[in-house]
Protein: NAD(P)H oxidoreductase
Organism: Euzebyella marina
Amino acid sequence: MNSILILFAHPKFEQSRTNKMLVGEIEKMKGVTFHDLYEHYPDFHINISFEKELLAQHDIVVWHHPMYWYSCPPLMKQWIDLVLEYNWAYGPDGKALLNKKCLNVITTGGSRELYCSEGSNHYSVNEFLRPFEQTARLCGMQYLPPFAIMGTHRLSDDELLDMGRQYAQMLQFLQDDCSPQAMKDCSMLNDLEQLNT
Ligand SMILES: Cc1cc2nc3c(=O)[nH]c(=O)nc-3n(C[C@H](O)[C@H](O)[C@H](O)COP(=O)(O)O)c2cc1C
C-alpha cells in the first residue's frame, strides 16, 4: 500500500466550509498522514528537518489547499521555498524525492466551466498548476493530475459531503494503484472511472 502525506494549507480554516468537510472525510484514513501546516507553523517558522523526515516516510505527497489568486496560500509557498533544498530535493546530489508521486488537491470558488479558454479565467486549473507540476518534476517526482472541488460557493452540504467521499475514494485508489495506465485520459483525478461508477 502506498503511504500518503497530505500537506494542508488554509490560512482561515476556522472559517472554512469546503475544506472542513473534505478534511473531515480523509484526516483519519489508514495509511494517510494529515499535516496541517498553518496549525504547526502559525509563525511561518517551518521545521525543515522534520518536514524532510516526513517526506522520506511517504510515497505520495499531496499539496492540498484552496486556490488563492490562482495559486496557493503563502505558507504552502514558504514550505516549497524552504523544504525543497538544493542538493536534497534537486541539484546534482538532490535525490531525496526521486520517484515519489505528487499532486495538488485544490478547492476553487470558480466552477470548472470558467476554467477554460472561453471562460472568464481563460486557463484550465491544470495550466494554473504548472509551477507545481514543474517543481515536482525538477525534484524527480512523478506529477499526477490534480483533484479539484470547484464552484465551492454553489455546492450544497450534501454535494460537499459527496466530494469528501470522492476525495477519500481517490486517496484509496492512489494507495492501491498508482499506475499511469489507470490515470490515462484523466486531466483531473475527478474523472477517474473508479469515482464515477
Ligand atoms: C484571498 C482569496 C483568493 C481567492 N482566489 C481565488 C482564485 O484565484 N480562484 C478561485 O476560483 N477562487 C478563489 N478564491 C475562492 C476560494 O478558493 C474558495 O472560497 C475556497 O476554495 C473555498 O474553500 P473553504 O470554504 O475551505 O475556504 C479565493 C478566496 C480568497 C479568500
About this structure: Strands lie at 4-8, 32-36, 60-66, 101-108, 142-143, 147-150. Residues 4-195 form a domain with the Rossmann fold fold (CATH 3.40.50.360). The first helix runs from residue 18 to 26.
